[in-house]
Amino acid sequence: MTALKDLLQHHVQEEEDELFPAVHAAMDKEALEQLGESMQQRFAAVVEAGFEAAVPKGWAKTSADISKRSASKASRKARSAPASEADPTERSPVWPSPAR
To answer: How many whole angstroms from its chain centre is CA 79?
Structure first.
């Protein structure tokens, strides 16, 4: 969690130090105010609709969703594989057998 916090703080600092000043210099006051207003309206609409509505269909909503998908794919693959391939006592071709 600390790494995520550090990445987020770095991202915010980068925006404040580089992006915002560049945008401020490139846009006039009226355009900046209009942009800010449209961003606030969009944010309010997304919050009102809820998180689920903001995530595009087919995209994972959490890392748990990704884990469930991976487990489901592995389960389907195991069920559809021939018996010799699905045998859990066989070694995976990805991992070499230990030297004996």
So the answer is: 29
